[in-house]
Amino acid sequence: ETIAMEQFYKTAKNADILIVNSALTDHCDTLEELKGKSPMFQNMKAVRNGTVYITEDSLYQSSMELGDITDEMHRLIQGQDQDLIHFRKLQ
Predict the structure, then answer these.
(1) Which residues pair with 20 in a beta bridge?
(2) pLDDT tens across 40-66, in order?
(3) Most buried residue, 2, 35, 70, 89, by CB count within 10 Å?
(4) Residue 41 near residue 47, CB atoms below 8 Å
């Protein structure tokens, strides 16, 4: 199901961490590129705090690695985001 950008912003504007689906963006390597996708991103707490991650393109072909993906999400949430394979922090 898709939601309008305004509803997404209303729901996610105060999130501590934002995980962006790389399949839904036209290649995004930096926070500045993400902000350029929509002005709404600029006012989001996670964007301001630099806690935005993007999924790697291979994430959706990695169903056999669900345990590793879940572990990475846990580490990401705990602030231990080094050596991630399925997620990349946007700088």
Answers:
(1) 54
(2) 899 999 999 999 999 988 777 777 889
(3) 35
(4) yes
Pick the closest to residue 17 from 43, 42, 53, 41 (CA basis).
Answer: 53
Cα–Cα separations (whole angstroms), residue 41 to 4, 29, 48, 69, 89: 14, 15, 9, 25, 15
**The whole model's pTM is what?**
0.86
User: Strand 52-55 relative to strand 87-89: parallel, antiparallel, unpaired?
Assistant: antiparallel
Q: Sheet holding 18-20: strands in order across?
A: 18-20, 52-55, 87-89
Q: Amino acid identity, residue 46?
A: A
